[in-house]
From TrEMBL, chains A, B:
It is a multi-pass membrane protein. It comes from the Bacteria. Its main location: membrane. The chain crosses the membrane at residues 25-45, 57-76, 88-112, 139-159, 203-225, 246-269, 319-346, 367-390, 427-449. This is Trk-type K+ transport system membrane component. The lineage of its organism: Bacteria, Bacillati, Actinomycetota, Actinomycetes, Micrococcales.
Length: 466, 466
């Protein structure tokens, strides 16, 4: 009996195995759809809302998609509309969604990059058909442990400040946990109606959250790679960056540059806006711009009213959101390495170089085609969604484009139109969040996981795209 | 004496020769700037305006840039603000600008493509340092003759209709010539305040104009190639398309697809708009959509009020304008072959092909990098210009984006904001038209005209990018 059960379980494992390696895109999308459906159902029960009357289907579905896809766009205020049960469901959705995204994308990304040691093992296992799940299991454990550690670290760092703010240890602990999970998973959900806006100058609260968002948006392969590259206590720090993979270097540098450029531009453009940075002191302006510079990639928290920003600031954030964060992270968008590869290609073209190079490594040429596919697909989806929302509503392009990019790149920043959308508009955004989330994984899986004749040349390294 | 003059002229020829082949981008930009300056000066004389008081500098400069860059955006109505002299200056500016663009771009394009027979001669000449200008001269002659023939053909085709409309043979002839030159050069200038709007259902007037715009937007290499590929009288038509170059095939197919998609989408989106297609009969709706489907690439004429269209229609036209027309044509944008190469690259990636292929030809891989450079540069220019105009004015993104793309791609369609812009805004658009016009040539010249080691493989063909 025990043997039969084990045998049947092994059969199931084999089936999942087969699916994962034969049609990984279809499997990922199906699993995601099921998880979204489950959480929508959990949010449909009457006591999920604070008034005990239950949510409408469209609101439950939208919230479930937003949570599982770690977007953070909301049609109903998280802290007041949903009950504590509802909020726990949302937070669980974020945790499950974020974990799922990191796991699936890490697996795919590692298979694509064929770089990180774990993947070598995975690939070997897949070839010899033995103990593959064991290695997947170890990856899953590493991700769970790392993610939870980082989430709890953020929560612990902001807990003292929240005790002061809330004047209640229980509420402070709950909010600290909520922000910790929401920040590391780049979810952008907040447990109170006013969110972080009252704390625009609060370095002790905002810096840990911003740092958590930044690290979360780097992506799991980068976090793991950095963990391994950092010297053990007592060892030298010299040259530790040389132990980083090309993918990690590209992600770190591009993320850093986008952060600095975004923060500076928003600082200048909003400097004298009376509804945003205008009334703030110099220090608070600086913190607000640092915070706002990190959030489009794709944390989605805000300390000032995004809806009151200028159209120029929206446009800058549109561009930043489209780029998004790191591959195999909970951030969305076309991903920073995709942008980096395209820029490197342009530089190579300008210099007349035959190969695309970065950090002493040559980037394979087919990576460029993959980048173009990701960018073009993304731009097309955004264009079609904008047309759809413009036809459904009477809204202006500036706000529609912002909300569409926020949904597509699962950012969660909002000019405030989402809550007022008609149901059809909510469905469009929900679909967009789902497509934006699973799309990159699907495109990469479909395009990159094929056997392809390769010219053997050394040394070569493949960054993860999409 | 005659000998000395000839010697000095030969010296000048040598100098231009050297510049053209050493720094073609700088030469092209400088010549363009000088021509624009000249026409601005010609429009500054008092009797250039109808009231005889002379134009303001900003208006003269804007109009000169718009004419020489064959854009068609206007800050002052062409038919009423400018005198007949002013209108002749504008038309001459179009003719000179259109000719200059076609000549320079054809030369560069042919050198890049290394395909068309004429270029082989040119290249051989450049290597042996003999009689190069003779061959450039023959190219110039072919372009002048072909362009003038097509312009006069359009003028002759619409002349009978204009006689009926204007009830005055002189005015009709002038307007026919104006429309002929304006259409073939994709300039979009109209000789009357109401333009073509009163004639929205006039097939006899609009079809020749639309056809002229379409052919002009294909680009001179395609026109020349088609001319040569078409069978002589008495010969068979079978397989004549096989004599077309890859560049011609890509340009024709992509232009055709963009036209059909654009016309259909605009037909659907504007079908019931009471301020545009709504009041029209079915036939007139069809003609209006056919006309509007051709104009974003980049004729710039309009038979309905573009400012009254929906934001969705603007967005569709934004995308079409960004793509623009054929390489080495008077059309702007990133060019249809650039789009085609990127789509083919995505298809190749999806199929897992090693090479990018079309019509039985392999497209060299470095063409893809050139395409990316053109698209990325274009998108960045558009983004920066939008931010600038949003900061200068209080206008909405939807109209600003439309006008920016219209200027960048030298289309000339307008939602109506250009005439009301402050001077700083006019300068931004004027600069954008100039950059949009010379930018592609510059990028291609800088990036593509370098010597580069090439892998020898056959058969290979290089479409013109940018
Ligand atoms: K988010
Ligand atoms: K034009």
């Amino acid at each position: 009996m025990a043997r039969s059960l084990r045998h049947r379980l092994f059969g199931l494992r084999e089936l999942v195995d087969e699916l994962a390696f034969r049609a990984p895109a279809r499997l990922a999308v199906s699993v995601f759809a099921c998880v979204v459906g489950l959480f929508a159902a959990l949010l449909m029960v009457p006591f999920a809302t604070a008034d005990g009357e239950g949510a409408r289907f469209v609101d439950a579905l939208f919230t479930a998609v937003s949570a599982v896809c770690v977007t953070g766009l909301v049609v109903q205020d998280t802290g007041t509309y949903w009950s504590l049960y509802g909020q726990i469901v949302i937070l669980t959705g974020i945790k499950v969604g974020g974990f799922g995204i990191m796991t699936v994308a890490s697996l795919l990304g590692m298979i694509v990059s064929r770089k990180i040691g774990l993947t070598q093992k995975l690939l070997t296992a897949s070839e010899t058909k033995t103990s593959r799940l064991g290695d997947v299991g170890s990856l899953v454990r590493v991700i769970i442990v790392t993610a939870t550690t980082l989430e709890l670290s953020i929560a612990l760092l902001i807990f003292p400040r929240l005790v002061v703010i809330e004047d209640n240890v229980g509420t402070a602990a709950w909010h600290a946990l909520f922000y910790g999970i929401s920040a590391f998973n780049n979810a952008g959900f907040v447990p109170t109606p006013e969110g972080l806006m009252p704390h625009v100058g609060d370095w002790a609260l905002l810096l840990p959250i911003a740092l958590g968002v930044f690290i979360g948006a780097l992506g799991f392969p980068v976090i793991l790679n950095m963990q391994r590259a950092l010297p053990r206590p007592g060892h030298r720090w010299r040259n530790w960056t040389k132990r980083l993979s090309l993918h990690s270097k590209l992600t770190l540098v591009t993320s850093g540059v986008l952060f600095v450029v975004g923060a500076l531009l928003l600082l200048v453009l909003e400097w004298s806006n009376p509804d945003t940075f205008g009334p703030l002191s110099f220090g608070d302006k600086l913190l607000a711009s640092v915070f706002a510079g990190i959030m489009p990639r794709s944390g989605g928290f805000s300390t000032v009213d995004v809806g009151a920003m200028t159209q120029s600031s929206w446009l800058i954030q549109d561009a930043l959101m489209f780029v998004g964060g790191g591959s195999a992270s909970t951030a969305g968008g076309i991903k920073v390495t995709t942008l980096a590869v395209m820029l490197l290609a342009i530089m190579a073209e300008a210099r007349g170089d035959r190969d695309i190079e970065a950090f002493g490594r040559r980037i394979p040429r087919d990576v460029l085609r993959l980048s173009i596919a990701v960018v073009f697909t993304g731009a097309s989806i955004v264009l079609v969604s904008c047309v759809a929302l413009l036809e459904i509503t009477e809204l202006q392009l500036s706000v529609v484009l912002f909300e569409v990019l926020s949904a597509f790149a699962t950012v969660g920043l909002s000019t405030g139109i989402t809550q007022g959308l008609p149901d059809s508009g909510k469905y469009v955004l929900a679909l967009l969040m789902f497509v934006g989330r699973t799309g990159a994984v699907t495109v990469v899986a479909v395009l990159a996981l094929r056997d392809r004749r390769r010219i053997v040349r050394f040394p070569e390294e493949r960054p993860i795209i999409g």
